[in-house]
Amino acid sequence: CDEMAPPVPFEGESSMKAHYAAPSTDAVLAASSASLRHADLQAASQQTARFEGQSTMHQDFQAPPPAALNQSQPAAATTEVSP
Length: 83
Fold this sequence. Notes:
Radius of gyration: 31 Å
Number of helices: 4
Shape: flat
Order of helices and strands: HHHH
Number of strands: 0
């Protein structure tokens, strides 16, 4: 039995097609309109509520001195971390 039989074509109906009733055009338009109104409200709230503060990364990070950035580092350099 080394030969594979050709696949049997599917003959039937999926449960989605059998049980799903598509929404009416009016329902789709109403949902779309509500979605657009929600997006407008979100945009308006984002414009009025702006973040004013400083992230902990900006607060805690100390940039290396310019001299350290200008040094060339060997390509095969490895660092060992001790526990």
